[in-house]
Every structure is written in structure tokens, then in C-alpha cells.
UniProtKB/TrEMBL annotation:
It comes from the Eukaryota. The lineage of its organism: Eukaryota, Metazoa, Spiralia, Lophotrochozoa, Mollusca. This is Uncharacterized protein.
């Protein structure tokens, strides 16, 4: 019998990048649900299916057209690799308590690499590159501040 309370982890929110939309495929994706819907009307399908089909088609087409971002910008492949190794060591540690030293070492490397990547990302936001416009880093900075600010309830 499991006595631990069930914890619900927060679902990651997708950030749709509209600037990188695939504009060529938008027209094709708009016409396909219309044709599909007309065929279903002719086949006399159930009303619930007719109601849900356009909604599902629109949701699937937006995921195809727009690129999604659901991670922090400074998380690199190397950091993800360390995270996966930590998960593997935790899995081994649950079976036998021999991997505590290795787990501690991996957690330290993860903390070090992620903080270095984060500060490198902040440095990229704050400082302009040689061939870049002076206003670009300030825009990146203020968008970063906007995403970081938390709303205080009085």
C-alpha cells in the first residue's frame, strides 16, 4: 500500500514563436479541415465528432505551423545529458544504495554547468556584439525582465 500523497507536477507551457511560422503551409492547413468536414457531413457522422473535428484540426495545425519553445534558453545539450545521467543514477540508487557519491558529484556538475550557462546567457543579453545595433541588447534585456517579473498581490 502506497501512503505517499500524490503530487501533481505542473504541465509545461508551450511558448509559440510566431516570428518563425511556416507561412507556406498555412494555406494548405486551412483548406484540409474544410474538405474533411464536408466529407464527414456527407457521411452523416455523429454530431459530437462533427463538433470536435474542427477544433482538433485547428489545434494540430497550429502545432505544425508554429515552432514551440518550452524550455529555458540557456539549457544546452550537455546540460540535458547530465540531467539524464542524474536520472539514471537516481534509478540505480533506488535499487541499491551504492551510487550516493556519484549522484552527489553529478548534481554538483549539473549545478555548476547550468549556472555557468545561465550567466553566459545573461552576458549575451546584456552586452552588444560587434556588428550589432546598440538597441538590440536593451530590447533583449527588457524582454528578459518582462518574463522574469512576478506579480505581487497586495
Amino acid at each position: 500500500m502506497n501512503t505517499k500523497p500524490k503530487t501533481n507536477s505542473q504541465k509545461t507551457r508551450k511558448i509559440q514563436l510566431y516570428r518563425r511560422a511556416k507561412c507556406d503551409s498555412i494555406k494548405d492547413d486551412i483548406h484540409l479541415p474544410d474538405i474533411k468536414f464536408k466529407k464527414e457531413i456527407l457521411n452523416k457522422t455523429h454530431i459530437n465528432i462533427l463538433w470536435n473535428t474542427p477544433k482538433e484540426d485547428i489545434e494540430s495545425s497550429t502545432s505544425k505551423i508554429y515552432n514551440n519553445k518550452d524550455k529555458n534558453s540557456w539549457i544546452t545539450q550537455k546540460i540535458k545529458k547530465v540531467m539524464r545521467r542524474i536520472d539514471g543514477v537516481i534509478h540505480k540508487k533506488k535499487k541499491s544504495n551504492h551510487a550516493t557519491k556519484k549522484l552527489k558529484q553529478l548534481k554538483q556538475t549539473f549545478q555548476r554547468k547550468s549556472s555557468q550557462a545561465y550567466w553566459k546567457y545573461l552576458e549575451y543579453i546584456m552586452t552588444p556584439e560587434d556588428n550589432e545595433d546598440i538597441r538590440a541588447p536593451t530590447k533583449r534585456f527588457w524582454t528578459y525582465i518582462k518574463h522574469k517579473k512576478s506579480y505581487i498581490k497586495w
